[in-house]
Amino acid sequence: MKIRIITALCLLSIGMVTGQMRKWTLEECVYYAIDNNLTIQQFELGLEDAKIDKSDAIGGLLPSVNGQLQAGGNTGLTFDPVSNQPTNTTIQTATGNTTASVNLFDGLRNLNAIRRANLNALASQYRLDDLKDDIRINVALAYLQVLSNKETLKVSRAQYAVTEQDLKRTEVQVQEGVLPQGDLLEIQATAATQEQQIINGENQVILSRISLAQLLQITDYENFDIADEDYDVPPSDILNNSPKEIYAKALTFRNDIKLSETNVELAEKDLRIAGGAYIPTLDAFFNYSTRYSSEFRDPTTGENVSFGRQLWLNDGIFYGARISVPIFNGLSTRNSVKRSRINLKQAELQYELDKLELETNINQAYVDVKNSAKNYEAAVKTLEARQLSYDYAKERYDVGLLNAFDFGVAQARVDNAAAEVIRTKYDYIFRIKLVEFYFGLPITLN
């Protein structure tokens, strides 16, 4: 991540020095989105929290040690905590103790808790990686939409430039009386329509750039743009694989499937933890304590015993083991086990549903990419036919054998066909990349 950030800063600095707006490639957009997406940052915090849960589970196997110190005074009738005799005077006392306990056996719940914590951390990682996969797809789709809108705008401007030439020529021919005034009005209407298309195209480019920038968490929309490159449909042999082959490959690496599978293992561990409450537990404990009293005296001399000597004389050790046998707990353990079994069954069903959804998505994507290919090929053929028709109409219009209205219709058909070629081309590119992504190939336009 640090290398990508440094690279991005260097590229940005170069752009500032040269005074040119930085042009983002698809790969740069994907890396930047993953490094800066706020939802990813939230999921990363969740992963850190899962690692802390693992540390908590390990801590459950370690002994617990606690110490306590207490000092005070009393005036009047009280019991001396050392001699346990009543006394009616001012007395200062102090006590201290240290207690240690360790769980020797708890029905394997602590061990299962550690295993569960490991699985939960793994599930959090899969959840994070699955989110990154979704962001890669969304960024690629938004990036291709900008490319599509830019190319459409470029074609619109080129078509308008041709119309301007026709408009100038028509103005001259109308002035010379070769063509009627109506033809000029038709050409002017066509030019106005194309101007409107250019304005709409510019707006679409701006909006799609903003949409992509928002995915990248970039707010400087005015200075954000992508690389101006023309992309053809990339060569791909992905369709040489059947949907079943793609699905089988996807099952081996897809993070959403691994997450679902891990959730089943988590539910199994929860069931074991819940069932451990039926088993007796064994604990060991150790306690060391001592005390001091200002009224404690040596029984032979009657003199006050010093603080340090009292701590030595009055200390004691208490230790042992304790076994707890669950007999009846208001059905809470039984109900907890039942809920865990239900959760396990739900996790298993969800795992099967996720696999079924993945298979459905892959089959749909496979069909879509084939249909997109056919649509693109049909759009190209349509454009070629419309262009030939337009060229023929233009020849007839130039010699006065075709009126301006019919010529405008031929031109509009070319415009629509050109726009459809662009739309179907980038739709085809995205569909190819989506199927490749299901097969484990990285998203790139190279």
Automatic annotation (TrEMBL):
SUPFAM superfamilies: Outer membrane efflux proteins (OEP). Keywords: Cell outer membrane, Coiled coil, Membrane, Transmembrane, Transmembrane beta strand, Transport. Pfam families: OEP. InterPro entries: OMP_efflux (IPR003423), TolC-like (IPR051906). Residues 339-386 form a coiled coil. It comes from the Bacteria. It is found in: Cell outer membrane. PANTHER family: OUTER MEMBRANE PROTEIN TOLC. Belongs to the outer membrane factor (OMF) (TC 1.B.17) family. This is TolC family protein. It comes from Robiginitalea aurantiaca.
